[in-house]
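Input sequence (153 aa), recorded before submission:
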Amino acid sequence: MIKIWPLVPPDQRRQVLANHWICCDGNLWRYRRAVVAMSRDAGYLGESECPQEPVRLYRGCYAPREAQGVSWTADLKVARWFGSGGRFGKLGGWVYTVVAPVDAILGRFTEREEDEYVVDPSLLPRPRKVEIIREGQHVEPYHKGYNPLGIQP
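Predicted structure, token format:
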């Protein structure tokens, strides 16, 4: 996506990026600056209006340095699942929270039942650690139907 972004007509960038985001289910950590730049260029993403008030968000991640990521959720259960290793098994990790200011929110997606917010991490306050999830600790999936690799809890 990053390589073809300059070729996407400006009037189609919002829809192209939103469609790509919904299908993307990989690690964006190393591309977070490009994701923020493309999102700013495209405009607010997702199916709902941008919130008018700050929003409490959570992020589950495998390493503390990843607390400054672009993907957050308003659902603590979702963050716990990702922090536990989610679709990759019981790896263990961390759950963080922030209150995201409106200008940091770049989009919101609910298609995968993740209540996912795309944010500009440079505009977030310092994330506060909510929980440490130990390796092997059982964490309930955030919904029963999402298990693309068939991993058993």
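Checked by second reader. The mean pLDDT is 82.
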